[in-house]
Design goal:
The protein has about 140 residues and is of the alpha+beta class. It has one helix at about 1-30; strands spanning about 60-65, 70, 80-85, 90, 95-100, 110-115, 125. A 3-stranded antiparallel beta sheet has the order 5-6-7, with no helix packed on it.
């Protein structure tokens, strides 16, 4: 008989504690705000050289692309990845100067931004693809690599 009393008590304690324990991670995840698009601020945030260590960048800055953009393994058009970054909102880690690039619509820039595409990590996209990017200037609010 004593075992039944202990079993009932243990069952009652679990019935009360388990829903609270399971709900805590869900509540914590819901409390995290969604990532915000980085506000554009003037200033030179770029660097003249970059050495990319795969997976070494973790802070994500969100910007929108106004067109589909090819991705490249380096800051030039000589090393394409064969994939593209679709039009829309994406995260970028940093920016650096590289080979001049034209978007085909008369916009030019020497600034390249580091991101991930659907198949590759740590790839570059010309800053000409970012909405609001000014020709020949670094992307406002994005740190240098």
């Amino acid at each position: 008989m004593a075992h039944r009393g202990i079993l009932r008590t243990a069952t009652a304690v679990l019935a009360l504690a388990l829903p609270t324990a399971l709900a805590a991670p869900v509540a914590a995840a819901a409390a995290d705000p969604p990532p915000q698009e980085t506000a554009a601020e003037p200033g030179d945030h770029g660097a003249s050289d970059v050495h990319v260590v795969p997976g070494s960048y973790s802070v994500r800055h969100y910007y929108s692309t106004w067109r589909e953009a090819r991705t490249y393994r380096q800051r030039d058009t000589e090393h394409p990845t064969g994939t593209v970054l679709p039009t829309g909102r994406h995260y970028f880690f940093c920016q650096t100067e590289g080979q001049p690039h034209s978007d085909g619509d008369g916009r030019y820039s020497t600034w390249w931004v580091l991101t991930d595409d659907s198949a590759n990590r740590d790839v570059f996209v010309s800053a000409t693809a970012l909405r609001g990017a000014e020709p020949w200037k670094p992307v406002a609010g994005l740190p240098g690599c």
